[in-house]
Amino acid sequence: MNHLDVFKALSNKARLQILQWLKDPEVHFPDQPGFESGVCVGQIQQKAGLTQSTVSEYLSILQRAGLIESTRVGQWTYYRRNEKAFLELTQIIQKDL
Amino acid sequence: MNHLDVFKALSNKARLQILQWLKDPEVHFPDQPGFESGVCVGQIQQKAGLTQSTVSEYLSILQRAGLIESTRVGQWTYYRRNEKAFLELTQIIQKDL
DNA sequence: AATATATATCGACTTTTTCCGATATACCAA
DNA sequence: TTGGTATATCGGAAAAAGTCGATATATATT
Questions:
Q1: Is B26 helix (H, G, I), strand (E, B) or coil?
Q2: Which of residues 33-72 of B touch strand D (CB under 7 A)?
Q3: Considering its fold, how many domains does chain B have in total?
Q4: Is the pLDDT of residue B31 over 90?
């Protein structure tokens, strides 16, 4: 995990918001049935009020930082939080920062 | 504490480095005697290899984010870490993020 | 194969950040 | 009060990030 990339990924309002939404998918994305593998891009885009390309880009920034993971199922890509990364981040802040 | 400003402040290599230096001033700034109130800008600037104006600006970004504090003594401004902010940050990541 | 839908990538433009040199301000010493 | 040193602020050029529309790719359906 690269500290810098993680902090950069977190330095954006929309991306922080997305992370929070993904914490409780059933609450924030009631349209979508089943959340085992995450939430699909379209749902997130709709809620974020940004274009599809922007949201797709933001999700890949979060993923490169290790904060979320994805699974492709058919034509959908489902994104979900990687809680391990958040734990690791708090440890990094306590030790390395 | 504004999450976004904190993460932005942490999204820069030099600023992260400065925070780490300030963790062990006696190790990283052996020239300066006494560290109770922190390290002065000149010492940090010299070690960072950036211009005085850049370092001064970076320190004020870190300060606005709440990550460091300063005390003016004569013509020097001494900067030191605000450890409370780092603790608070780990709690924010665990709860709000 | 043709069409439709979901997502990713590309190119462009705008805004923000980085980092500098120059200048201003604050304090100290003679 | 004059000059010296430390820090802060200002203005700007270059690089990076934000954001879009258009296009490409992948998958599903007919």
A1: helix
A2: 40-42, 45, 52-53, 56-57, 59-60, 70
A3: 1
A4: no
A13 CA: nearest nucleotide by C1': D18
Which tokens go with A35?
């959340």
Write out pLDDT tens, residues A46-58: 999 999 999 999 9
Per the structure, the complete domain to which residue A16 belongs is given by: 3-95
**Which residues, at least 6 apart from B84, have a Cβ–Cβ distance to it below 8 Å?**
none
Residues on A contacting B at a C-beta cutoff of 8 Å:
3-4, 7-8, 10-13, 16, 19-20, 86, 89-90, 93-94, 96-97
Given a cut of 70, whether residue B52 has pLDDT beyond it is: yes
Lowest mean pLDDT among A37-41, B46-50, B60-64, B75-79: A37-41
CB atoms within 10 A of CB A1: 13
Rounded to the nearest angstrom, the minimum Cα separation between B33 and chain A is 24
Looking up residue B28, the CATH number of its domain turns out to be: 1.10.10.10
